[in-house]
Amino acid sequence: MSAVATSRQTEADARSFTFADRFLAAVPLASVYVWLCGLYAFEAWQRATPWLFTDELELTTISRAIASTGHPARLEQPHSFESLYTVMLAPVWLIKRVATAYAAAKYVDVFVMAAVVFPVYGMARMIVGKRAALFAAAGAGAIPALAYTSYLVEENLAYPYAALCFFLILKAFVVRGTRRRRLWGAAAILASLVAPAVKGELLMIPLTLVFALLFALWSSTWGKERRARWSTGDWIGFVVAAFGAIFFISGVGSHHSIQWLTVTRLYKHRIIVLGDWAAGSLAIGIGVVPLIAGLTALVRAPGETRSHEVRMFRCLALGGIFSFAMYAGMKAAYLSTDFATRVEERNLIYIAPLLFVGTALLFERRRANVLALLAAGAYAVYLMVGTPYFMDRQLYSDALGLAILEQANRYISWTPSIAQAVMLGIALGGTALLLAVVMLRRRARLAVVLAAALAVGVLGWSLTGEIAAAAGTNSLADGAAATLRHPFDWVDTRTHGARTLYLGEAIADPTAPYLLTFWNRSIVKVSSLDGSLTDPLASGSPNFLPNGALYASYYNYAVEDWPCVDFAGTKYWQHSYRAGGGFRHWRLVQLTSPNVLRSMCVGIYADGWSGPYDTDYYRFRGPAGWLRVVYSRQNWQYKSGASPVHFFLGKLVVNANRQPTLGAVTKTVNGTIDSGQVKTAWLRVPAGGFAVRVVVAKKFEPDQYNHAGDRRELGAQITYTFFRNRASATPRR
Length: 733
What we know:
- By secondary structure, the protein is of the alpha+beta class.
- The chain has three domains: 366 residues, no CATH class; 97 residues; 126 residues, Hypothetical Protein Tm1070, Chain: A (Sandwich), CATH 2.60.290.
- 52% of the residues lie in helices and 15% in strands.
- The strands form four sheets. The chain has a six-stranded antiparallel sheet with strand order 6-9-10-15-12-13, with no helix packed on it. A five-stranded mixed sheet has the order 4-3-5-8-7.
C-alpha cells in the first residue's frame, strides 16, 4: 500500500510540476500580448470616429444587417458577406447605442489582431529557442500596421489569420508521425481554403501552400537525386514546361479577369516598381533590418547543420513572400490604371511574421550566407532610394510604415532629404551590424550582445512607427469629428430608429454624410440630387413624379441638405456641420405620406459658388409668389472681369428618367456681376411647378489669380429663396 501511495503521489507531483512549468513558460508570451493589447486599446479609445470611407462604413453596414436580420446587406440592399470579418463583428452591433457598439468593435479588433503573437511564436519555436521566438512574436505584433486595430477593416482578422495559416502549414510539414501529419495537414488545407473568405487577398494563402509544397519537393533528397540524373535535354524540358505553366496560368487569369489582363499585358514594369514601393514602406515601418535578415535567412549558410524544420520554414517563407509580393505589385499596378498610383503596403503586411521569424533564426544561430546578406542589404538600400515617402500628408492610410517619417516631418521638421539620409544610414548600418553578428559568432558573448541590441532597436523603431500611425489616424479622426460636430447620433435620438433618407446636393467631399450614416443607424439610404455621391454606398439621384413625390420610395424622416433640398413635412431638428470653409445645415424633417419634395436646387457647391454647369431651381408645387435670387462675387476681390448673368424662367418638366428639367422658357432676365458685388434679381413665379436656370456666362478659375490650388470653374455665389409676398422679404447682403 505504501509503494502504491508513493507512486500516486509521484504522478500527482509530476502533473502539478508540468502544469506549473507550462504556466510559467506561457507568462512571457502572455505578457507581450497583454502589454500590446493595453497600448492598442488606449489608442483605439482615443479614436473619436471612423474616417476611412467607404471601407469602414461599408463593412459596418453589412455587419449591422447580419446582426439585425441574419442576412448581409448594404443600406437595405442585399449584398455578399464581403468577409468573415463582418460576421465576427455582427454580435457587437446588437448593442443599440452606436457609440458603445463602436467602442466594443474597436476593442474586439485589438484583441483579435494582437493575437498574431501566438501563431508567430508557435511557428518560430519550431526552428529557434524561446527568447528568439518571443522576439519574432513581439516584432510581428508591433509593426505599424497594428494601428489598424482602431479601424473597422478586414486586416484586423486577416493579419492574424494569415499567420495562423503559416503556422499550420509549417506544422504539417515538420511534424513527425503519419497520423499526426495527416491531422495537421488537414487543418492546414482547411484553413487555407477558408482564407479567401476572411479577405479576398488571402487567396494567396492556398497559393503559398502550393508553392511551399513545390519548393519542399525541389529541395528534398528525392528531388536532388532526381535532378542529379537529369541530362541537358531534361533541364531544357523542365524550363520549357515551367514557362508553359506560367503562360497557361496567365492565359487563364487573363480570360477570367480584366485586371489580370490589363496589368500583365500593358503594365508589367509597374508590377515591379509599385511592388518595390510596398516593400520599401514595409521595410521603413519595421526598421529595415528584419527585411534584410529575413531575406538572408532564406538562403542556407555555408557550414550550416542541415535541419528539416529550417528547410521547411524556408520553403514556406519563400512561397509566402513571393505570393504576397506578386499580389501587392499587381494590385498596385492595376489601381494605377483605374484609380491612382498608390503605395500598397497594406497588401504586403502578411509577410512580416515570416521576416521576423527569419530574423530570429539569424540572430540565434548567427550564421548567414554573406553574399545573400550583402544582396539583401543592397536591395534595402535600393528601396530606401526608390520608395516615395509621402511626407506631405498627415497619414498614408494604405502604407502605415511611412507614418514614422510623416510624424517626424510634423514634429521635428524632417524633410524628405533628411529622412532618406536616415533610412539609408539604417539600411547600410543594419547590413554592417548583421555582418558583424555573423563574423563575430566565435566570440559568442559579443555576438549575442550585438544581436540583442539589434533586436531591441528593431522592436523600438517598429513600435514607434505603430504609435506614429495611431497618432496620425487619431488626429484625422478628431478632424472628422469636428466636421460632423456633436452630438453624432442626433438623428437616431429623434427618429428612434424609423426609416430615414439622407438627401444632399453638390457634395464634393462625402465625409460628412458618411459620418452621419455611420453614427445614425436609422439612415437607410444615402443619395444626392445631382448624383455627386457616387461611392458604392450611395445611390444615384432619386426619381420623382411630376408633383415632387419620390417614385417607389417611402421614408418616415429625411435629413435634407438645406437650403437646396426642401421636403414637405414637419421640420423636426437642425444640425450644423463644417463644409466649404464654413458651416452648412442639415434639417431633419418628418415626412408626409407620400414623401414629397417641395423644391430643390442643383449646381451649387458647399461654399455657395455655382460651377461649370451653372445652377437650376425647381419648385414642384405651391402658390404663386416671388423667387429672390441673390448672386454675388462679394468674396472674390481679384479683377477677373464682369460677367453677364442670364435668368431663365419656365415650366418644370419631369423627363423620361424621372428627373426635373427646365421646359419651355416663359421669361428671360439679364444682369451682370463683377468682383466684390452683390446683386438681387426678383422673379415673379406662377402657382404650381416652375423651373429657373441661372447662367453666369464668364466663369473663372481662382488658382489662376491667387495660386491657392482651387482649380474649380466658378461663376457666382447664388442663393434662392421663395416668398409669397415680395413686400415682406428683406434682401440679404
